[in-house]
Design goal:
Order of helices and strands: HEEHHEHEEH
Oligomer: single chain
Radius of gyration: 16 Å
Helix content: 25-40%
Number of strands: 5
Number of helices: 5
Structural class: alpha/beta
Bound molecules: zinc ion
């Protein structure tokens, strides 16, 4: 993974996503929307790992990958990640996090589930590969997508009123909120 043109090897990608999923499960245990993220350095070393903390911190910007990017840069004493770094996150990053990714400049981005309601890495827009920006992240093929999405849909389904649990499942998204039954199954923030 030292050569920024050669994608990280399969076992490293698998390890990264396993660690991100572990973080997502920690979030669920704290009643946080289960999204986890890790950053591995150019030699595969763990630079940061975190999970969504929006409820715990009362901070709408405390998304897993945003926190991990800040922690990795702070630990390195730098405003950018080393070339060859990989960010792995269980859910497609939102516009805020995609912006943070462009600023922190990981070379590689790997995510699990698509976020059709808020994703900014291909779903609603594609911030990380926008040719008008001065850094573009190499987006790797999604990995463990079903598992990453199931964590989210199970989380929201368990928080819906019993009467609403029969309908279509909630969409895997940070934007889904376990508040009230929604006929479309897509509660908005
Ligand atoms: Zn985000």
């Amino acid at each position: 993974m030292t050569d920024a043109d050669v994608p990280p090897a399969d076992p490293l990608l698998e390890r990264a996503m396993a660690l991100a999923l572990e973080q997502a499960r920690r979030a669920a245990a704290l009643d946080e929307v289960p999204v986890g993220a890790v950053i591995l350095g150019p030699d595969g070393e763990l630079l940061a790992a975190d999970h969504n903390r929006t409820e715990t911190d009362h901070d709408p910007t405390a998304h897993a990958e945003r926190l991990a990017l800040s922690a990795a840069c702070a630990a390195a004493g730098a405003t950018r990640l080393p070339a060859g770094s990989l960010l792995a996150v269980t859910l497609e990053p939102c516009a805020m996090c995609a912006g943070a990714i462009v600023l922190a400049r990981p070379t590689w981005l790997l995510f699990g589930a698509l976020d059709p309601k808020a994703g900014a890495c291909g779903s609603l827009r594609d911030v990380v590969r926008d040719p008008r920006l001065n850094h573009r992240v190499a987006l790797l093929p999604r990995r463990r997508e079903v598992e990453c999405g199931a964590l989210l849909t199970d989380f929201f389904r368990a928080r819906r009123p019993a009467a609403a649990r029969e309908g279509p499942g909630p969409s895997p998204s940070y934007n889904a909120r376990p508040v009230a039954p929604d006929p479309a199954g897509l509660a908005e923030r």
